[in-house]
Amino acid sequence: MPAETNVQKAPVRLGIIGCGVISEIHGEAVANSQDGVTFAACADRNIDAANAFSSKYGGATVYTDMIEMVRKENLDGVVLATWPAHHYDHIRALADAGVRHILCEKSLTASGEQASKLLDMQLDEGVQVMEGFMLRYSPVYMQLEELVRRGEVGKIDTIRSGFQEWDHETESVEDQSRKWRLQKASGGGVALDGSCYPLHVCTNLARSLPQSVSFDGDRTVYDTLARLHGHIRYENGIIAFIQSSLRAVVCKEAEVSGTEGSLYLPVAFGYNVPEHIAIRKRTGHSNLTMKDVQLDRPDAGSSYVPRISPRHQIEHFADIIRGGVAQRIPLVESVVNMFTLDAMVESAETRRVVDVKLPEKVRAAWSEAFGDTSTASAA
Questions:
Q1: Where residue 37 falls among pLDDT bands split at 50, 70, 90?
Q2: Radius of gyration of the chain from Cα atoms?
Q3: Closest CA to 219 of 59, 348, 357
Q4: 93: which of 10, 69, 214, 261 is 20 to 30 A away, CA to CA?
Q5: Neighbours of 350 (CB within 10 A)
């Protein structure tokens, strides 16, 4: 992210919808920012949750109805922190109520079809939706992206990324109040919660449209996806391997390998990348010539700031609202990932290779954002 300055910026008044666990990360980000961003209002069907957020993060005006909030408050934008299965309906309702800037927590929607409608909304109605992926604002992840773009690994052959967190599935199947990640109707399961992280890394670094996928997986006792393992073939020839599981110890890594070397990042995503985490670069064409070195972090020599990524993300969103700044994560990138996730789940359920079917309007939007990326697999 750009170096911090003391330039005074226009104030940005935000509202947040959904005052659960992830809202606290956004609340903390705004509280620690000196960028003129505030949460002026918050909304949650659970009034206690909304009151708790307001008390902890600046006294935001409390609502139990998000539409009432946006109609009564003079907000510049909204952070949507509700469950994935409801994202599209909430975005549509917010747009109808006049909201024009929305930062939506991952996953963007519950399907590619829903996501593609957001492109129409952007073009026809001027509604700017940005998917929240804090990893793209981590200094060490941005370092990885920059090294890949400038050709440090040469022509890319493979990208590998994983998300794993052990969920013991101890909550009762009969308990309808169990956490949303264990409820199919809310968008729970590894696909919309965990798999979207490594998928996001792979598409971002491959910088190409997906061609086909081959995945395997199985389900939890709650009929949600527990595992989703497989590979994606991109149109430029890059192969991406993804492992995502709720039945293994933690894994949030990424590795890019090519003709000139490989770059490995042990913690590639999450709202907090520990200070000791750094990229490892490996070169050589045999065991005898292999060299493995740890690169200096981009923030080496300066004070380590925990949870800096959420703060950079919310400040970037504020700059988009102010105008003149392009989205770091173009909407079409998130839309393509939703179609890819659809294919990944279908492949796991059918145990066959599945083509990723992208509408022409999505392809056109991708080409406008990134140009023709179907052949070049090196920076």
A1: very high
A2: 21
A3: 348
A4: 10
A5: 10
User: Is the bond preceding 107 in cis, omega lying within 30 degrees of 0?
Assistant: yes
Whether 370 contacts 227, CB under 8 Å: no
Q: Which two tokens stand for residue 117?
A: 């409608």
Tell me: pLDDT of 4 over 70. no
Residue intervals of the chain classified under CATH 3.40.50.720 are 12-135
CATH of domain 136-299+328-370: 3.30.360.10
Crossing angle of the two packed helices 47-56 and 21-32, in degrees rounded to 10: 20
The closest of 99, 117, 89 to 332, measured between CA atoms, is 117
Collapsed DSSP state (helix, strand, coil) of residue 258: strand
Question: What pTM, to 2 d.p., does this model score?
Answer: 0.94
The pair phi, psi for residue 30, each rounded to 5°, is -70, -40
**CA nearest to 142, candidates 299, 261, 283:** 299
Residue 8 has pLDDT above 80, yes or no: no
Cα dihedral sign, 165-349-209-133 = negative
User: Is 298 within 8 Å of 275 (Cβ atoms)?
Assistant: no
Question: Which residues 6+ apart lie within 8 Å of 64 measured at CB?
Answer: 43, 44, 45, 46, 47, 50
Gap between the Cα atoms of 184 and 218, Å rounded: 14
Q: At 189, phi and psi to the nearest 5?
A: 105, 170
The residue count of the chain comes to 379
CATH 3.40.50.720 applies to domain 12-135: yes
Q: Tell me: the pLDDT tens digits for 268-290?
A: 998 889 999 999 999 998 999 99
pLDDT range class, residue 180, cuts 50, 70, 90 = confident
**For residue 359, how many other CB atoms are within 10 A of its CB?**
14
Residue type, 349: E
Q: Contact, 310 vs 272, CB < 8 A?
A: no
